[in-house]
Amino acid sequence: DADAHYNLAHLYQTYQNKGAAIHHYQEVLKLEPNNPDVYYNLALAFQNLGHRQEAMECYQRVLSLNSNHFMAHNNLGNLLLHRGYYAHAKEHYYQALSLDLTHAKTISNLLFSLHFDSQLTEEALFQEHKTWAEQIQASVTPFSHYSNSSVFPRQLKIGYLASSFHHHPGAYLLNTLFQEHDRHQYELICF
Question: Across residues 1-17, what is the average pLDDT?
Answer without folding.
Answer: 85
